[in-house]
Design brief:
- The chain has helices at residues 18-26, 34-43, 59-73, 93-106, 123-128, 141-149, 166-171, 175-182, 202-211, 222-225, 242-253, 265-277, 291-302, 336-343, 367-374, and strands at residues 6-10, 31-33, 49-52, 84-89, 114-117, 134-139, 160-163, 192-197, 216-219, 230-235, 258-261, 282-285, 308-311, 326-329, 353-358.
- The chain is globular.
- The strands form three sheets. Strands 5-6-4-7-8-3-9 form a seven-stranded parallel sheet, sandwiched between helices. A six-stranded parallel sheet has the order 10-15-14-11-13-12, sandwiched between helices.
- The protein is built from 15 helices and 15 strands.
- The chain folds into two domains: 6-223, Rossmann fold; 228-387, Rossmann fold.
- With 428 residues, the chain is of the alpha/beta class.
- Helix 13 links the parallel strand 12 (282-285) and strand 13 (308-311).
Amino acid sequence: MENFYLSQTRFDSFPLDERLLASLRDAGFEYCSRIQADSLPLTLAGQDVAGQAQTGTGKTGAFLVAVFQHLLNNPQPNAEAGTVRCMILAPTRELAIQIARDAESLGQHIGLRTVLVYGGAGYDKQRRQFEEPVDVLIGTPGRVIDYWKQHVFTLKHVQALVMDEADRMFDMGFIQDVRYLMRKLPPPDKRLNMLFSATLSHRVLELAYEHMNNPQKVQIEAESVRADNIVEHVYFPANEEKIPLLIGLIRQLTPFRAIVFVNTKHIAEKIDDYLRGNGISSDLISGDVRQNKRERLLKDFEAGQFQVLIATDVAARGLHIPDVSHVFNFDLPQMAEDYVHRIGRTARAGASGEAHSFACEDTAFYLPEIEEYTGKSIPVTKITNALLATDLVRPHRQQRERAGQHGGDSRPPRRNNNAPRGNRSSGR
C-alpha cells in the first residue's frame, strides 16, 4: 500500500555528505517524507524552520538530517570536554530515547558523538558522558538544566537547536525551563534553529519568533496527517458497558497489537486488572511508571510478549511502536488534537488499522470538537448484545509492579498478614 506520507523527492537529490547518504541508505531510506521534502531545502540553506508535523510523519529524520549536515559543514576541531554543538529538547523521556535511537541509525557512518540525558535513570552515568566533547545532546529540559547548572557542559558553542513537540512543552509545564535554556545559547542568528509541533498555535509561534531567526513555516495540516487507511468507529456506551464492550471487541477483533488509551492512571489500572483477569495479556504505562520498567515494558510489547498496552497520554506522542493494528479510546481525550495523536499509533508506514472510540456519559461532549478538528464525522457503530462480554470474571486487585507477568494472570496479590481484615473499597 502506498505510504501516504512519502514524497517523490530522493535524499540523494540534496547536497548531503556522502557519509550521511550512506547512513540513510543503510537505514533503508531512499525517498523523503513530505515534511522532510518541504523542510530540508530550507534548513540545508541555513534557514530556520517552524514545522507542523505529527509523530510518524518523518519529522525526526527531517531535523536529524539537517543537524548532521550542518555539523559536518561546520566542524569544531579541538573542542574541549563538555562542549555541546547541538541541543535537541524533547518533552518526554520516551521521545528523547526514540530520537537517540533514530540518531544512532541515521548517523552510523558520520562519526558524530551523540549523548542522551533524561530524568529517572542513570544520573552519574549520564553525567560522565560529558567528559568528552559532545556533538549532539538529546534530552529532556529538567535533566539538561540540572547538568548545566552544575557546569557539567557549556552551551556557548551551540551551532544548532531543535525543539521537538513544542506544544507539549507548554502542556507539560516545561516552557519556562525551555526559555531558560534558550537564554544560555548563542544568538539565534549564530545557529541553525528548528521547532516542530503538532500545531503551530499562537503560543508556539511566539516561542519560535522569540528564540529563532526569522523561521519559515512548514505545515502539514491536521486533516492530511490522518491516514486514510484508518477505519474509525465510535460507540455510545453507558459507563457500566465500557469494560464489557472493550473485552468483547478485543475477543472478536483479535488485534495483533493494540493500545487502549485512557485519561487517568486509576482507569488504566482497572482495565489492566480486568483484561488480565479475563485471559487477555496486557500491561500499562503511565507517568509514574519507573523509567527502566517503561523501557522494558515497551520492548516486551514490541516483541509480542503481551497483546494490549493500556496507556495514558504519556504514550500518545513520540513512541514508534510498529504493527499496532488497533487503537481503543476507552476515554475520549479532552483535547481534539490528542485524538489524532492517539489513532496515529496505528496505520503507520502505509499499513491499515482500526480506531474504536467510546463516547460515554463522561466524555461524549468531547466528540463534536474532535469531529470539527478532524473535518469529518466518525461513523457510529451500534452496541449490540453480541459485542458485550457477559461472562466477565471480576478480578482481584493486582499489584502494580509485575515485571515479566504479562496477562492471563488472575492470581490475587500476596496477602499481607498484618493488614486489617474486613471489606476494603478499591478507592481507599
